[in-house]
Specification:
By secondary structure, this protein is mainly beta. The chain is 11% helix and 44% strand. The radius of gyration is 16 Å and the shape is elongated.
Length: 138
Amino acid sequence: MLYDFDDHNLFITPKIAYFPAAMGGASRHMMVNGSSHRIAVKIKCSDNELFRVSPVYTLLEPGNAQRLQIVRDPGPAKTDKIVVIYKTTCASSARDAFECDLGAERKVIALIAKEDVTMSIAPTTNLKSILRQSVQKS
């Protein structure tokens, strides 16, 4: 299943990323505003010592997309998370929109660092790749 049933205001893909614990790595994700309103987005991480994210704040106009870059430094194997906080806004800056967290919703991206992963990977969301994999398994 490629889509959430619960909320199409902000679509995030992929929702999980794997990193080699000993080497660290990077993962790219896509955030898409599926609503008819401007959305302010704020990114939080469970471990700011190991992870860097860009952008931390952004505004998404209706129908627009923004790439989210997550970089992990080398460190212990463990599971962390990115929390994507978002809300509709008419503010001119995403930072200003979050002076008050009222009305904010949340989505989570799982960040898994393992010893047996040799490179940063995220499950594919490319439809051609998914179809090719399902044909090869048949």
